[in-house]
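A student in our group prepared the protein record below, which I am reviewing. This is what I was given:
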Amino acid sequence: MQFSDVLGQTQLSSRLRDTARSGRVAHAQLFDGPEGSGTLALARAFAKYLHCSNPTTDDSCGSCTSCLAHEKLQHPDLQWAFPFFKKDGSTRSVSDPFQIMWREFMLESSYVGIEDWLSKIGADRKQLFVSVDEALEINRKLSLKSFHGGYKILIFWLPETMRVDTANKMLKLIEEPTEKTVILFVSEKANRLLPTILSRLQRVHISRLSDSDSALGISKITGVSIEKAQGWAHLTDGNIASAIRLSKTGSETSDLQLFSTWMRACWSRDGEGIMKGSNEFSTLGREGQKKFLAYALHMLRQCIIGNYGVEKLVRLTDGEQSFISKFQRFIHEKNIVSLSALIEAAHKDISGNVNAKVIFFDLSVQVHTLLRKES
């Protein structure tokens, strides 16, 4: 992954190269941006540039020993941290059993999200995290001498999945880094990081890609026509990772089907339908449940956008548009704030390991009341 492979983000790429050439590289940085915006791609390109033996003003050379090692994800001075789950029978909760799968994952694409990683490791019904044991292992690895004598770099993907005790262990490494150590945190939800961690990081904010940049990237990565790519770019709001998933599945019909059936059951206070929806929701697994609740929020917001007639902001498939056109009249200024708050609270409860069926059933009863509220 070189800067030339990063989609859009040209000004930010240039700024990162400038800091590398000046030698003023902050030892702990936060690459913060929405899924599919290129946070991970930029971190990988920056790490490669820092390790490159013959960098130009525009990019890493791509042909030195370090660049070739990066290309295969085999550079000895590049370490990775990422969320995982403890395998049954393991005595320690570390990422070692997942390293080969992670390498395969990164060789496939840098435009990925948690949903893709869950699918890769077969953890659809598990909640991923970064453990204290893993933080200790990271500290151990970064305390070793650099193999090539240059920077020792850690790319930490989704640090918001750290538990509090894990974050406290990482805090020591951030406050007392070993010589020539660079930690690149790559986050999609930086507001979930502990303030004590956040305040010690140099923040590199990465904006969502424009429709034009994402369309070119989608066409390049998936091979679809630029016309189709433009449609996907608009639909996914510039999220390359989501567009790649769309190219593999063809649609988001499963989320739409569950959402539309759920809303109908809530509106009519169909107890049997709500129970059926609760059972289906519980089978999604923790990350799948959080993803669906995020989808539900998206759909409710699209209702409000539709009510105000702001067509350029509508991000819906044909199937979603068909449903929303009939449903949006039930979502208005007198219930949207409360509905959003309820779903966000349910999302938080899921993260806290509260019983999914109970959450969904209770949420459904409250949604019924709000849907019946007159505008």
